[in-house]
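Here is the promised in-class demo. Please do not try to memorize the tokens; focus on the logic of going from shape to residues.
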């Protein structure tokens, strides 16, 4: 049985439906991210789990108990927001211990649990400092320790890393995952950053216009996006219009100009208009005259670990990412090249699935 279950949960502001029939079952110990563009209803969903926003329709269950209309403070969930919301006049230790005091935990146990929580976020030497004496990343770790110290059944994170600079943000992603694995707290995180969602979650929920459009493990989501929207929102891709011209033995042949590709035929019918999705890192630049498409290098960019090429091809402009691993000479702008890819990496999406 799911530990946290949202059953056809909807939220209306007046006549405006901002979350629609949202279903989600989360296992104990799972890390699930709600990912989607601004305004798609991520925060509202989290707020309904927390109890800060009323549920208009539907039901939320925690460990088999209906909590749909339970007051937020009696749900006992751990919450970390984008703004750390630490008490500025209290030391780090006092901030962390606050929730235990409110729950009337005896002093000795409070001291021990606060020490453990600060050690978990690697701030055991910072207990006597004030929030203003800490960096952004350290403050966010204090906020995490404060949320975890009460041993909440569920930890809710709303864009917890978005105030941090890029490098610290990446470090904190792994740190967050390490801590979550160690304590095993069921966690729901809101983010609009697809790389963050993919790198630290067990499962990702992509939301669009208040609905969950795909719920999958990160690799599955990236490799098998169910719509054009997801294929471009989760990672980048080249989309080329095509048509199903053959169906046999579960395989479909899709044509785009002179190109024919074989793809999984599930759900496709002869004559269907489709979008062929070619991920930039799956495309391989080969010498001119080889590969599946003749191209020329229009633009190249150096990204450090990779080269990014814009190639002119018979299918139009294609973006290609090539590793900077020293195995191949980088191409120059104007070079004639070929483009190849391994069998099975091409995906096909129903045309119009962006909606
Ligand atoms: N109190 C409110 N009253 C009316 N509409 C609201 C209220 N709170 C949120 N909304 C609307 O609900 C929709 C979803 O908002 P929500 O904050 O859940 O989106 P989000 O996906 O978290 O976006 P962001 O990434 O920008 O934070 C938006 O259109 C927003 O304008």
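The designed amino acids, position by position:
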């Amino acid at each position: 049985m799911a530990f946290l279950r949202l059953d056809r949960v909807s939220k209306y502001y007046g006549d405006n439906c901002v979350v629609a029939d949202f279903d989600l079952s989360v296992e104990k110990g799972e890390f699930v991210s709600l990912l989607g563009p601004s305004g798609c209803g991520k925060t509202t969903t989290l707020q309904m789990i927390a109890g800060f926003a009323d549920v208009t329709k539907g039901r939320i269950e925690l460990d088999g108990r209906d909590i749909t209309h339970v007051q937020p403070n009696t749900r006992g969930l751990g919450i970390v927001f984008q703004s750390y919301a630490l008490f500025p006049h209290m030391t780090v230790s006092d901030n962390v211990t606050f929730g235990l005091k409110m729950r009337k935990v005896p002093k000795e146990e409070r001291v021990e649990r606060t020490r453990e929580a600060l050690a978990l976020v690697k701030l055991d030497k910072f207990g006597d400092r004030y929030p203003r004496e800490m960096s952004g990343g350290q403050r966010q770790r204090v906020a995490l320790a404060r949320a975890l110290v009460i041993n909440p059944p569920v930890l809710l994170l709303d864009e917890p890393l978005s105030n941090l600079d890029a490098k610290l943000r990446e470090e904190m992603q792994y740190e967050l995952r390490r801590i979550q694995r160690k304590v095993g707290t069921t966690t729901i995180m809101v983010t609009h950053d697809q790389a963050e969602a993919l790198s630290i979650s067990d499962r990702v929920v992509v939301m669009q216009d208040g609905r969950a459009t795909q719920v999958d493990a990160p690799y599955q989501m990236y490799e098998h996006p169910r719509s054009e929207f997801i294929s471009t929102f989760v990672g980048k891709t080249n989309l080329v219009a095509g048509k199903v011209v053959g169906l046999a033995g579960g395989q479909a042949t899709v044509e785009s100009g002179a190109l024919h590709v074989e793809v999984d035929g599930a759900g496709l019918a002869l004559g269907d208009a489709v979008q062929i999705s070619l991920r930039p890192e799956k495309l391989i630049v080969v010498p001119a005259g080889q590969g599946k498409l003749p191209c020329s290098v229009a633009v190249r960019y150096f990204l450090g670990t990779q080269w990014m090429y814009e190639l002119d091809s018979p299918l139009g402009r294609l973006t290609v990412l090539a590793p900077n691993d020293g195995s191949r000479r980088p191409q120059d702008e104007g070079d004639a090249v070929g483009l190849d890819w391994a069998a099975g990496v091409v995906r096909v999406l129903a045309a119009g699935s962006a909606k």
